[in-house]
Specification:
The protein has about 500 residues and is an alpha/beta fold. Helices cover about 50% and strands about 15% of the residues.
Amino acid sequence: MINIAIYLRISVLEKGNLRHTEDTINSQRNIIKNFIFNDQELKKANIEEFIDEGYSGSTTSRPGLDKLLLKVRQQKINCIIVKDMSRFMRNYIEMGDYLENIFPFMGVRFIAINDGYDSSKEVQNGTELDIQFKNLLNDYYSRDISEKMTTALLSAKKQGKYTSGTPPYGYLKDPEDNYKLIVDEKVADNIKYIFQLILEGHSLNETAKILNNEGVITARARRKEIKGYDAYANRWESTVEQTIWSHSIVRRIVNNEVYTGTFVFNKSTKSKLDGGKVIYHPKEEWIRIYDNHEALISKETFDEANAIIKSRRKKGFRIKNNKYSNSPLASFVRCNKCGYKIRFNKSSNGKELVGINLYCYHCRMLEQEEKLPAHKELEKEILEILKNKFHTDKAEKRKLFDEQKELYDRNDQLLKKKRIEFENYKFGKISRENFVEIKNQIQKSDEENKERIQAIDEELKQAGNIDKLTEDTVRKYIKTVYISGKGIEKIEYQ
């Protein structure tokens, strides 16, 4: 059975125009499906679609392409069809590697319709050089376009045009001008309210709690309202910061100059080396365009609020990596009530480390927090559980090793016996029926021994001298520990 993967891609530039985006995707889809329909062999195949929107052909790190290639490796796809090669990949070296080595090895037929290329028909007929040359041109074109896009975007930003995809909370994109910000009247007052709370003396945490208690809509929820779906649901695991107000979200809003009507850019650039690593620029290199759009708060309010936040930053005693503890359980514990990760925060009295506080940030922000067990007691209890379940002393391990060695020796003896009985059969010392019976008995014993050897391997893999709790030990045996004020509620093992 032929399993076809249809691959569709639009670039960053094409995605900027919504109407053009739809036309491009639909155009590619229609061309490919018409091709399949008119092919007697392909029209009966299973078809699966993979799409990448807003991704350059010069990068191979694309969600849709990654899913497609995974299914190729799993041997679930044996035919790939694209409108043209440039949609699949513009890097001529990598494209050539796929066409000449990877796809033939995996038994995958590759068809590029507009290029007139079908790997099942083009081998050794003189077209390979044409394809390589075309890929070289695609690669050059991609690099040229990338340079032009960078220049065009910088020019647009210098004109005060908002070129980013999602506007900041409190603003929308002007339907008549996709590069202009307009006020989102539904939530604009929320921005003013946040600055008011800070000026009234509320901390970032207190402000977040007030917003949660009053049911003020978050940025993510507002985006979902506007789009009709959660744009981030399939990209990242839902986190506290995305579902409720937190001190970090409040801080980002209070620190954002956009609310004063100022457009700020050149905060960072992507390196052309190091795989596109982001390089952050110092503030003095940032470029600002004042009065670029309607302000939600005054410059004076912005400065005053940020001065208050700055003055509240704790000075004096600091512990390196203070935010997270070095508790071996820190990455594995979740709240049994809401399912969010429990925070293990180091605490001090201003002079020295005094302990580690456990709390659920989600429940705290919603004022539903209950007192959780002390981290030392939790670690002690987990250690005892692991000891009882997985600890194997040296004597027990020695016994398992000896049994396994005995089974290996027994299999060697069975192999020797099999050879001897075969010779006996060949020289007419035993009948064919007797040989088959003996061979079957040896085979059965051999399989039983191998099953037991494998079982011992599993026992030894799980076995360990668990004398103390370490992160490696926890990671080896535990996936998640769920706790409440009552203690451990449930443990999910690896």
